[in-house]
User: Fold Cysteine desulfurase family protein from Aerococcus kribbianus.
Amino acid sequence: MTEIYFDNSATTKLDSQVLKSMLTTMETYYGNPSSLHDLGNQANKLLQSARQQIADLFACQAKEIIFTSGGTESNNFALKGTAMEKGNFGRHIISSQVEHPSVRRSLEHLQRQGFDVTYLPVNKQGLVSADDLRAALRDDTILVSIMAVNNEVGAIQPIAEIGEVLNDYPSIHYHVDGVQSLGKFTDILIHPRVDLFSLSAHKFNGPRGVGILYKQANRKLSPLLDGGGQEGQLRSSTENLAGIVAMAKAMRLTMENASQENANHKQFQEKIRAYMSKNSDFKIFSAPNQAPHVFCFALRGVRGEVMVHALENEGIYASTTSACSSRATDQASSTLKAMGVAGDWASYACRLSFGSDNTMEEIDYFLQVMDKLVAKFAKIQ
Ligand SMILES: Cc1ncc(COP(=O)(O)O)c(C=O)c1O
Assistant:
């Protein structure tokens, strides 16, 4: 039975070496890192060594790495933690119209608390402009939050350019949702001006339920979780040691394999683009030269969910625009809407997202299936 997984932006398969270190950690280092006895000390040593390994990959200090439960928590913490900490100095936040719901919903929450949010528009490729950002800055702006790589179409935002603009505004917190960006840039943080950066282990062959918020040492955040004072008093709760150790390993492997993997994904996209450009019934929403692992397209008249199930019948797992919105069938993708894609075309959108295991043979198979589906849907219409 064919099983081709093209839904890596939703989640990735756990790497087998990562799983092994997770199991070893659970079996051997079961002590609580906060306990005073030797089992606690051993667990704490392992925790701090995973933190140091991750800090080395980030090229930052170990104390700047805060472990969380994933991308959603990291984003909530960056946004709400900044708002609570700096709300007395200003109540204006700048973000974009194409953020992940964990950012968008956090911002809506803050708007209900009286914060004012400017949502920057995007162009047809899904990109914000650093000039628009500069124009939106105000005396009371406390936070700028922009994602590095869009999860629906793969647009790479001008994080470094925005960083240059924000060099002139040193008091503003600069948060980047980097959940889809690990391995796509040589420097994880992309630009030294970035103060807060979110990652999630299950997007890079690590386990679910564990993530990172990088926080530049001099920036202050109010904690969302109060309790035992773990993570430097910033994120209470007993640490998910096995998840953290596994995440450190998954991060290292991802960074080591990144350039080869990106080159492969680029070739996959090129082949699919060449195929689809020959038939005007296809539309491609992912601009060329954006993130190589995300490819969003549509076939005229075929709703995204119909395409997803037709592909599934052939053993190919894809998604509509994002896993989070997949089940909300009546909600058009807000990213495609912001890019100016007409409603019916947006409803035809289907996303392929590549991971470390995919091969060119799988792409060839996908294109054969597409031939079949194009003929099949043409008969129905
Ligand atoms: C860009 C982006 N940010 C945040 C998240 C949320 O991450 P998590 O599933 O770890 O909460 C996702 C997950 O799809 C994402 O793609």
